Amino acid sequence: MVENRNELSSFLCCCLQNNFPFFAYQLPKSGMIQIGVQTDLDLKDYHSLSELDEQNGFVFSPFDIESCHKSWFIRSDINLAATEIDSGSIQLLRSADIKMDEAYPLGRIFESPHELYFDQVTKMINDLKQFKLEKAILSRIQMLDGMGMNCAVDSFLKLSESYDSAFVFLVSIPKVGTWIGASPETLLSSKNNAIETVALAGTQKLAGRIVDQIKWEQKEVYEQALVSSYVEKVLENHNVSDYHRTGPVTAQAGNVVHLKTTYMLPNGMNFHQLSNLVQDLHPTPAVCGLPKSKAMDLIREIERHDREYYAGYLGPIESNGSISLFVNLRSMKVLENQMALFVGGGITADSIPEKEWEETCLKAQTLLNVIRS
Ligand SMILES: C=C(O[C@@H]1C=C(C(=O)O)C=C[C@H]1O)C(=O)O
């Protein structure tokens, strides 16, 4: 826990209450929270990451880039490490007062109860068989009543204290939304000359077992292999061949484990090349499916809610070309007096609806165990 937790908490609450576009995040294994605040409401939306070359800030992109949701860039006009925050830091915010007079549009949040999810999985399995698709990801929303804006900062801080190996974030854009999460999945990261992407899929309950001794069934191995071969195809299309692959190994994410293959890419890719790679990687078959466009159509047809930024990507980018982008998973959209928790899982022709429901409950617990503690 950071020593100045109270000051940090007041600072983040002040950002929220005063409608600043801002972000706070903790990179995996960094143990350090970084904060960036944009001091006006002139937000930039982008189509391709390459438009953001040499900028410092944070990107927030939706699952479906053809939807009404835009990809946003938050500038970090104020850039602070959490440890630097003291009572004087709030003065910095006060000097840039940007109170908005319009209310937030909250959008349509549609919870999928057990019965509906069960029916949707069954339909998805039938469609996968009928149209010969390999995999599609079905998601649902669980509403958390009585936990809203006033719990946002505390929930973020608790997640940052509990999940050292996740990308823990709190991001807020007026009129777009406030999101919190602890993602286990890197989309693409390039820092200190190490460029990395992963293929993550397959889920089991950890249940007190030793991570390295966990065995996987054929269905999960197949699901994860689909993601790996997709990543490899994208790399090949971008003429990246001399990468180093590790795995698949079992990786822990709170109370669940996944299968994960890590790809270390050759040094020296510039921002433009990385942007193009992101464009093609997203959304991976870990959150959309295969073949991509048919899986996307199936998701649009079967899911009744709008994923918005769930299963999109987000993270900091720096003017020196560093990027740390993660998939927006194990995350919640914060509403006035509720939170909408998004969870999903990969469906194949062999899926069993009840097991798929249980998997989403397990994933939801990753967040619930911590924020309700
Ligand atoms: C879709 C989610 O997770 C993704 C799907 C997984 C799966 O199908 O087993 C595992 C990890 C993630 O890539 C989620 O957490 O909502």
Automatic annotation (TrEMBL):
Which InterPro entries is this protein grouped with? ADC_synthase (IPR005801), Chorismate_C (IPR015890), IsoChor_synthase (IPR004561)
Question: From the record, what ranges are coiled-coil?
Answer: none
Segments forming domain Chorismate-utilising enzyme C-terminal: 115-363
Q: Which UniProt keywords apply?
A: Isomerase
Q: Which domain of life is it from?
A: Bacteria
Q: Which GO terms describe its molecular function?
A: isochorismate synthase activity
Q: What class of enzyme is it?
A: isomerase
For this protein, what reaction is catalysed? chorismate = isochorismate
Gene3D superfamilies xref list: Anthranilate synthase
Q: What is its EC number?
A: 5.4.4.2
User: What is stated as this protein's family in its record?
Assistant: Belongs to the isochorismate synthase family.
What PANTHER family does the annotation carry?
A: ISOCHORISMATE SYNTHASE ENTC
The name this protein goes by in its record: isochorismate synthase
Species annotation: Labilibaculum antarcticum
